[in-house]
Design goal:
By secondary structure, this protein is α/β, with parallel strands linked by helices. It is 21% helix and 25% strand. It is built from 8 helices and 18 strands.
Length: 323
């Protein structure tokens, strides 16, 4: 793994918008960032990003004079991703690789639009696109009353390849963009309480029935090592459980201390019952930065706000983290 001199994280899509709350110096809220870049002549609804249920993060690692950029997830819809990227002034041609964390619509609904945008502006060749072979089956969530939310299916690897992506479909861990980004393999489940997402199902092989799929084994995380700080871990939904995620990241790179974690912690709805155990174990990692967002949920955020101090900097669309 290459060690980055510094890392920038820009939130392209998240559930929340928040430019009013105070932030530490290394975090720039959306409106302040747009104003400083000359992209906010007048504050208006059309001038700022749209919040949408989903997640997309743009990670830019600086190694010496070189920049290495990875798009982690693409949000729920191409229209939201492309519109927010235009407002934030994103250079699609600078994106070297795309990683889809797991096979859910709120992370991959904008994936095809992202690939097309990168290919249109990047020469020569399209980006590497890291996926897991288990991501492309149809999925759903069965509610306690028996009703079903059927999820939109993701674009297939063949369709992504036709759009210009170099599709890397594997269950094994990989390094991306010359070794500065680590894409995990399947995440071991070791805690007794992080047992997946109750009610989550996928289509059976016959294509007619549903079968339980609580573990969502196709989920992976991305990590980056930053000089003088340690390992930053990006976990888009944490269906494996954020404690399992950070435990595995620490085991993979035992010499790189865990510095921070960012993404959805999925402590909302049917997983709210594990908030106490999760927060208690999170404190044992000694994180310097925790940036929960997306599916974390307000109940968990309330507990995290009580238990963490300035380390807690919740994610919101348009926020830029300078690490």
């Amino acid at each position: 793994m290459l060690v980055a001199d510094r890392l920038e994280v820009l939130v392209l899509v998240d559930n929340a918008t928040d430019s009013l709350s105070t932030t530490p110096k290394h975090v720039v809220p959306e409106w302040a960032g747009l104003l400083a870049a000359g992209r906010l002549p007048t504050l208006s609804g059309e001038a700022i990003c749209r919040a949408h249920h989903g997640l997309s993060l743009l990670l830019t690692a600086h190694v010496g004079d070189n920049r290495h950029t990875l798009l982690f997830d693409a949000g729920p819809a191409g229209s939201t991703l492309v519109q927010n990227a235009a407002i934030l002034g994103i250079d699609w041609g600078a994106i070297d690789a795309v990683v889809l964390s797991h096979g859910h619509w709120d992370h991959g609904g904008g994936l095809l639009a992202a690939i097309e945008s990168v290919v249109q502006r990047r020469r020569p060749g399209g980006p590497d696109c890291f996926v897991h072979p288990g991501m492309f089956v149809q999925r759903g969530s069965q509610r306690p009353d028996g009703t079903m939310y059927v999820q939109e299916r993701l674009p297939t690897p063949d369709r992504l390849a036709k759009a210009g992506a170099n599709v890397v479909s594997t269950r094994e861990p990989q390094t991306a963009v010359g070794g500065v980004f680590y894409v995990s393999g399947e995440i071991p489940r070791v805690t007794p309480y992080e047992v997946g997402l109750p009610g989550h199902v996928q289509r059976s092989a016959d294509g007619r029935s549903w079968e339980p799929d609580p573990l969502i084994l196709d989920e992976r995380f991305v990590s980056v090592q930053v000089k003088g700080k340690g390992q930053l871990v990006f976990s888009a939904c944490s269906h494996a459980g954020i404690v399992n995620v950070l435990t595995h990241a620490r085991e993979v790179f035992p010499s790189a201390p865990l510095y921070g974690a960012m993404g959805g912690l999925h402590l909302s709805g049917s997983t709210e019952k594990i908030i106490p155990e999760t927060v208690g174990d999170l404190k044992r990692f000694g994180l310097h930065m925790l940036a929960p967002g997306h599916c974390t949920g307000w109940r968990a955020l309330s507990v995290l706000a009580r238990e963490f101090g300035d380390e807690l900097v919740p994610s919101a669309v348009g926020k830029r983290y300078l690490i």
